[in-house]
Amino acid sequence: MRVLVTGGAGYVGSHTVLALIEAGHTAVIADNFSNSNRAVLERLESIADVPIECHEVELTDDEATDRLFSAGDIDAVIHCAGLKAVGESVSAPLEYYRNNLDSTLTVAGAMAKHGVRRLVFSSSATVYGAGHTSPLSEDSWPLESSNPYGQTKVIIERMLTDIAAANTGWKVALLRYFNPVGAHSSGLIGEDPRGIPNNLMPFVAQVAVGRRERLTVHGDDYDTADGTGERDYIHVVDLAAGHVAAVDHLDSMATDVRAFNLGTGRPTSVLGLVGAFERASGQAVPYVVGPRRDGDLAVAYADPSRARAELGWAAARSIEEMCADTWRWQQANPTGMSSQLVS
Ligand code: UFG
């Protein structure tokens, strides 16, 4: 299939592009590069060893998005594009609702117009909010997130469910990511946050490489084995494979819309991840314990059984591999991708 990956130059999108190509699909990237780097394209092409079609496009722009679909025989869309920083969404909610909802409506509108009915959507475990107990199952209800970013995922899931329910032939997979980490084994692509990382793994990696002095552990008085928060970290290459499994499954899906958790089902604490990273990198990761971070849950991990049963997909990579691959990427790109070019 020719699969359009919106946000295809981003962290999850770029790994998904590679996974699609490896599986024999053709990947077409659409990205506005607002939170990604143009150098990614060259790197993807060097790994995949094929030219990759890439369109710089604003997906909130109806005409530009329409042109994208007019140009090219798209069979399916993986919609990864969107703003994704939880904290930023609290201070700029209008921007988050405007961008994430508008771009999804614009892409879905163009799909409807051009007869494209297969859609895989980048959702998030944040849709489960604080009201459910781990392991989190897709049947948890109601969905509610504690922040505007997460609410955009809840609302978009609802919009896509309504679109699929109109019985016009849509098939929609809602992929609820847990905590994507790691990088491609080549060390050429990985997570490249701008500014101070919000998420644990890139922060730990930047401490290990000497770019930041120490990690602040956000609370060690949770009701968990070591008192720190537990999450379901999933290797981004496994996550990318989950997207391919979902695209391939759409036509045989029993219902028109279906949510799938993409996680390992195994919780790891903050200190557990720090220890694994120290072992993988051979570097010390100094930390101090600070107060809890607003809105954080003690524990969040997936029940991944539906994806295993229905998509035939399961995460394979361990925390050790997640840390080793992150470290390889971090060492090769100590200041991120912006100042580096592929040699
Ligand atoms: N943490 C620290 N110090 C840091 C950063 C994080 O101790 O500097 C802790 C957090 O308190 C939490 C754990 O590390 O216990 C993981 O935090 P992340 O920020 O890496 O991830 P979250 O689980 O908070 O959020 C992530 C994504 C969201 C998504 C959510 C879904 O960032 O986009 O998972 O569950 F919505």
Q: State the low-pLDDT regions, or none.
A: none
Structural class: alpha/beta
Distance between the termini: 31 Å
Ligand inventory reads:
uridine-5'-diphosphate-4-deoxy-4-fluoro-alpha-D-galactose
Give helix and strand order, one letter per element, not per position.
EHEHEHEHHEHEEHEEEHEEHEEHH
What level of helicity do the residues show? 25-40%
Strand content: 15-25%
Q: C-alpha Rg, in Å?
A: 19 Å
Biggest β-sheet: strands ordered side by side in the sheet: 3-2-1-4-5-6-11
* Mean pLDDT rating: 95
Question: What composes the largest sheet?
Answer: 7 strands, parallel
Overall 3D form? globular
Annotation field: number of helices:
11
Q: How many β-strands, per DSSP?
A: 14
Characterization of this structure:
- By secondary structure, this protein is α/β, with parallel strands linked by helices.
- The protein has helices spanning 11-22, 39-48, 62-71, 86-91, 93-113, 148-165, 200-208, 236-249, 270-281, 305-311, 319-332; strands spanning 2-6, 26-31, 53-56, 76-79, 118-124, 171-177, 179-181, 215-218, 230-231, 233-235, 257-262, 268-269, 287-290, 299-300.
- Strands 3-2-1-4-5-6-11 form a 7-stranded parallel sheet, sandwiched between helices. Strands 12-9-14 form a 3-stranded mixed sheet.
- Helix 2 (39-48) links the parallel strand 2 and strand 3.
- The two termini are 31 Å apart.
- It binds uridine-5'-diphosphate-4-deoxy-4-fluoro-alpha-D-galactose.
